[in-house]
Amino acid sequence: MPRHNGKVERYQRIMAEEVLYAREFTSADARSAAIAVWNIHYNYPPS
């Protein structure tokens, strides 16, 4: 199972770097919306 844990850790690190701490959010709703958009980008990259 170490491979699965590594995937989760990489996902969390990249999300923190690219979304959560990339800019200041004016509200929790704005932060949630940014996470939702980023999740689509991360999970479904252009082919």
Q: Secondary-structure map with pairings?
A:
Elements: H1 2-20, H2 28-43
Structure description:
- By secondary structure, the chain is mainly alpha-helical.
- It has one domain.
- The longest helix is centred in the N-terminal third of the chain and has 19 residues.
- It is globular.
Concise structural overview:
The protein has 47 residues and is mostly helical. The protein is built from 2 helices and no strands.
Specify the biggest β-sheet.
Answer: none
Give the overall silhouette.
Answer: globular
Radius of gyration in whole Å, from Cα? Answer: 12 Å
Q: Level of helix content?
A: over 70%
* Cα-to-Cα separation, first versus last residue: 28 Å
Summing up helix and strand content along with how strands pair, one would put the structural category as mainly alpha
Strand tally is 0
Strand content: under 5%
Domain count: the total is 1
Rounded mean pLDDT is 88
Query: Count the helices. How many?
Result: 2
Q: Order of SSEs, N→C?
A: HH
Poorly predicted residue ranges: none
